[in-house]
Write a structure and sequence with these properties.
Layout lengths: L1 H11 L2 H4 L10 H10 L13 H11 L18 H6 L16 H14 L2 H17 L14 E2 L4 H13 L10 H21 L2 E2 L2 E2 L5 E2 L6 E2 L9 E2 H12 L6 H17 L4 E7 L12 E7 L7 E2 L1 E2 L6 E4 L5 E2 L7 H6 L3 E2 L2 H12 L5
Antiparallel strand pairs: 1-4, 2-3, 4-5, 6-10, 7-8, 9-13, 10-11, 11-12
Helix pairs in contact: 4-6, 6-7, 8-9, 10-11, 10-13
Length: 364
């Protein structure tokens, strides 16, 4: 009798129902982090990851009419969203891909639709996809918040293309898309991939890595914020390289781009230093989210690290002040920017590890 009950339950309630997993909030954390920077006193309740329908309802409430999302909200916050939006300036309400925005909400909503089959989540996700398609530039890229340029900073272009790549490669959360939308995504993806390959910087005849932003017409690296000067960048180039390695059956051009980027990561690593966080107290704390200072310490045993920016001409690592003045030592950067911006990091480690596995597909 017990076996019969289990059998009947299996028919009436498929195993997938019991195996449902709440979508991850990881992709939405950048926006939440920026909200936290502006709201140090947070006493409101927050939805848990298991409350994914309520979080998805939040996303729908924050979605703009054009299909995109305003940035830097606590997407899991139990808040009066109408009041939050009413308190924003018009410019703050506009849709953007900045801070890993919009493409992350689209994916989350699609995941929730797949779990619940509730039409409102599918409608909102598709509306977001249409926003991405409509805002792609003629050159194939997407812009960020700060400058009208092809933008890789904050995964603006890369994150969108990664979403499109996954959809085209059979992402189970988007199997509901019709052929018309899939064809539009394919065309957009092809154009976007082309600009990624075009913008890989050639230094003295050798392909290297990528800059954060590129001029819409000339595809020459340009600056964004005052302290984000034109230069090769290890973080953004890591994301691009990982995106490229996720392409099934890559073309020869894609393979060459990956090989060149990996070579650049190996050639540009910095050895013999580490970044130490020195705790600050009281009035010395500039931002509650960063109660420390960052200091470069010599350490011959430290693992290789990378600079965020490198000179386009000779790969010399550099930084910048808020004023836009280029400097070559972290200690010369304004204290607020030393902690509020990632000037050094281990980002390429992930790409280098992934490369070892990716390379195996070409061994016979």
């Amino acid at each position: 009798m017990m076996k019969l009950k289990i059998f009947l339950i299996g028919i009436l309630f498929p195993a997938a129902v019991f195996a449902q997993k709440a979508p991850s909030l990881d992709a939405l954390q950048d926006g939440i982090h920026h909200w936290n920077l502006l709201h140090p006193d947070r006493t409101y309740a927050r939805y848990a990851e298991k409350d994914y329908e309520k979080i998805a309802d939040n996303l729908i409430a924050y979605q703009n009419e054009d299909g995109g999302w305003l940035k830097n909200m606590d997407w899991a916050g139990v808040l009066n969203i109408d009041s939050i939006k009413a308190g924003l300036k018009d410019g703050q309400k506009r849709s953007t891909l900045d801070n890993r925005n919009t493409f992350s909400q689209i994916e989350y909503l699609a995941d929730v639709y797949t779990l619940t089959k509730k039409q409102k989540y599918r409608t909102a996700s598709e509306k977001g996809l249409r926003y991405l398609l409509s805002t792609q530039k003629d050159n194939g890229g997407w812009r960020g918040w700060d400058v009208d340029a092809v933008t890789f900073n904050d995964d603006v272009t890369t994150g969108t293309l990664e979403l499109f790549r996954n959809i085209l490669q059979g992402d189970s959360s988007f199997l509901w898309l019709d052929s018309g939308m899939l064809n539009a995504i394919q065309k957009s993806y092809d154009k976007g991939l082309a600009v990624v390959l075009k913008t890989q910087y050639v230094q003295n005849g050798v392909k290297t890595a990528w800059a954060q932003q590129y001029d819409n017409e000339t595809l020459v690296p340009v600056k964004a914020r005052t302290f984000e000067l034109p230069g090769l960048t290890a973080w953004e180039s890591t994301a691009i390289t990982i995106f490229l390695m996720g392409i099934k059956n890559p073309s020869e051009e894609v393979i060459q781009a990956i090989e060149a980027a990996i070579a650049w990561f190996n050639n540009s690593k910095i050895e013999g230093i580490r970044i130490e966080r020195v705790p600050l107290q009281g009035k010395d704390i500039i931002n509650h989210e960063y109660p420390y200072d960052n200091v470069v310490v010599k350490d011959e045993t430290a693992p290789a690290i990378w600079s965020r920016f490198y000179e386009l001409s000779d790969n010399r690592p550099f930084m910048a002040k808020r004023s836009g003045e280029k400097v070559w030592k972290l200690s010369d950067v304004n204290a607020e920017r030393r902690t509020g911006y990632d000037w050094y990091g281990y980002w390429p480690v992930e790409a280098l590890k992934m490369y070892k596995e990716w390379k195996k597909q070409f061994k016979h």
